[in-house]
Amino acid sequence: MLFIATFLRRVYLSLGELAWSALLLILAIHVFVSYLLFFVAGESDLVSNPIDFLYYYMVTATTVGYGDLSPKSGLGRIIAIVFVLPGGIAIFTAVLGKLLTGIGTVWRNRMRGLGDYTDRTGHIVVLGWQDGQTHQTLRLLNAERLAKEPMSVLIAKDISENPAADCADYIRTERLADAEVLTRAGGSGARTIIVRGANDDETLAAVLIAEDHAPHAHIVAYFSDDRTAQMVKQLRPRVEAVGSLAEELLSRSARDPGSSEVAARLLSVASKDTAFSLPVPALQAPLRYGDIFLNLKRRHNVTLVGMLSNGVTDLNCRDAAMLQGGETLYYISGMRLDPAAIGWALLGETS
Q1: Which pLDDT band, with edges at 50, 70 and 90, does 14 fall under?
Q2: Which tens digit of pLDDT belongs to each residue from 74-118?
Q3: What's the confidence (pLDDT) of residue 18?
Q4: Rg (alpha carbons) of the chain, rounded to whole number
Q5: What percent of the chain has pLDDT over 90?
Q6: RCK N-terminal domain: which residues (predicted)?
Q7: What is the DSSP string of 152-200?
Q8: Does domain 272-347 have CATH number 3.30.70.1450?
Q9: pLDDT (tens digit per residue) in 158-203
Q10: Domain range annotation of the chain
Q11: 347 and which of 80, 200, 218, 295 could share a cystine (Cβ 3.0–4.6 Å)?
Q12: Structural contact between residues 210 and 240, judged by C-beta atoms closer than 8 angstroms
């Protein structure tokens, strides 16, 4: 008796909440009873083939009414009028309404930062929100997003709705250093994580969480104190710590006029002379840096400026420096090169 009472209570709750299980049960019962009634009424054209009956039922329930299948007898038409048509339309309307409500709920939850992007890969996660600066960062990232690259995910505190819906998905959190939230943002599959907290302490805490829970992501963090940035560079070599360059640009521009303009153009997405990076794949044979320099210029019209090798960045490499594969090249160009589209063996040709 206890089992029956529990079962009936669950049925009652499902019907009261119009759960999907209840809707599907009602639909199945209505289809079966409709078929049975037409069978009793002798409507052989409708019930002889189950596919034909389901086709007739759906056409009737959705009020399309093609007319190619219909009851022939008076009793069959009464059954259609009294039972099939009103019941089918009611069930179809309920299913459609619940489906639209579910879609709307998912969309509202995503806008409010309650979405789940755990399975997303190859995207960029941005931790922290500063009015103006972060939105501009997200716009720049979105402007360079490749055709198959997923949208970036923003993690921010105390924002009721997505502040950058045009260029990023959004997850709301109470604190940036939250492993569960980073997981929900797809941190484990992210290609890059950008961290900029309200202060350096918050940024550092979020960086430590990102290191532990996003082992394959490149981590970029902004610190307002250059000493903190330098400390992170020394203690956390995996993290690209970025500090303020204002003082350096001021002093350099005073000695070398136009230096700030050069730096701005190298970092601007809108500029025709922008700095990009190019990962070097596994090579069949070592290549000379000087040969790559000349052939990249001749074949792709880009200017090579340096490379990262064994954790050391050299922006004035010797021509005789050898590349074995695994290095990162830095170049200036108006467009990003696809590493897979480059004939690396051809870059080693000497003139």
Answers
A1: very low
A2: 898 898 889 988 888 888 888 887 787 777 777 777 778 888 999
A3: 63
A4: 31
A5: 42
A6: 173-235
A7: EEEEEES-SS-TTTTTEEEEEES-SS-HHHHHHTTGGG-SEEEE--SSH
A8: yes
A9: 898 999 998 999 999 999 999 999 999 999 999 999 999 999 999 9
A10: 2-111, 124-244, 272-347
A11: 295
A12: no
* Tokens at 4, concatenated: 């029956």
Structure tokens at 133: 């600066």
Listed in sequence order, the residues at least 6 apart from 257 whose beta carbon sits closer than 8 Å to its beta carbon are none
Specify the 3-state DSSP secondary structure of 344: helix
- Residues recorded for the chain: 351
CATH number of 2-111: 1.10.287.70
Q: Are 130 and 158 in contact (CB under 8 A)?
A: no
Structure tokens, 89: 């339309």
**Tens digit of pLDDT for each residue in 243-285?**
877 777 777 787 888 888 888 888 776 677 889 999 999 998 9
Question: What is the helix (H) or strand (E) element at residue 239, kind and residue range?
Answer: strand 239-242
124-244 belongs to CATH 3.40.50.720: yes
Write out the two tokens for 255.
């000695």
CA distance 239 to 211: 8
The values of phi and psi at residue 221, to 5°, are -130, 140
Checking DSSP bridges between strand 239-242 and strand 218-222, what pairing results, if any?
parallel
Predicted confidence band at 134 (pLDDT cuts at 50, 70, 90)? very high
The residue behind tokens 């136009």 is 258
Of 141, 151, 150, the C-alpha closest to 269 is: 141
b/e code 214-248 from CB counts within 10 Å (16+ = b): beebebbbbbeeeebbeebeeebeebbbbbeeeee
* Cβ–Cβ < 8 Å for 192, 214: no
Per-residue model confidence as pLDDT tens digits over 140-156: 889 888 888 999 999 99
pLDDT of residue 234: 87
User: What angle, 0 to 180 degrees and rounded to 10, lies between the N-to-C axes of helices 200-213 and 226-235?
Assistant: 20
